Amino acid sequence: MAVLEQECIETLEILGHVYFLQGRPREARIVFNGILVLDEGNESALKHLAALDLEDGDGSGALQLLEAYASYNNGPDPRLWLMRAKALQLEGKNAEAGENLAEYVRRSNTEK
C-alpha cells in the first residue's frame, strides 16, 4: 500500500471514529465502508461497523464483520469475543453467546 493511501486511510479512520463518538452512525458507516473499499481487512473499520450493527440490533451483520476481522487479523482480541456474545444473543443463539462470554473472560484474565 502506498504511503499516501495509508495516510488517507488513517485520516478516514479518525474521521469515522469522530462521527462514531458524536453519535452520528450514518456518517460513520459511510466513512468506514469507504475505508473497506481501500483496505478490505481494516481492523478499525470492521470493528466500528460491527459495533454500529450491534447498536442497530443487527446480530447477523455484526457476526459477518467480526468473522471478517478474525480472518484478516489473526483472530479476535478479547473485546471481540464480548461483541460476538452480544451478536449471538441478538440472533437468539444464547448457548453460543454464553460460550463466547466465557472465552472473553478467560482471555481477559490471561492478558493481565
Number of strands: 0
Write the CATH fold name: Serine Threonine Protein Phosphatase 5, Tetratricopeptide repeat
Mean pLDDT, nearest integer?
A: 90
What is the CATH superfamily classification?
A: Tetratricopeptide repeat domain
What does this protein look like?
The protein is mostly helical and 112 residues long. It has one domain (3-111): Serine Threonine Protein Phosphatase 5, Tetratricopeptide repeat (Alpha Horseshoe), CATH 1.25.40.10. It is 81% helix and 0% strand. It has six helices and no strands. Helix 1 packs parallel to helix 3 (43-55), helix 3 (43-55) packs parallel to helix 5 (78-90) and helix 5 (78-90) packs antiparallel against helix 6. The longest helix is centred in the first third of the chain and has 19 residues, at 3-21. It is globular and about 45 Å long. The termini are far apart.
SSE order and pairing:
Elements: H1 3-21, H2 25-38, H3 43-55, H4 59-72, H5 78-90, H6 94-111
Helix pairs in contact: 1-2, 1-3, 2-3, 3-4, 3-5, 4-5, 5-6
Provide tags for this entry.
81% helix, Serine Threonine Protein Phosphatase 5, Tetratricopeptide repeat, mainly alpha, 112 residues, 6 helices
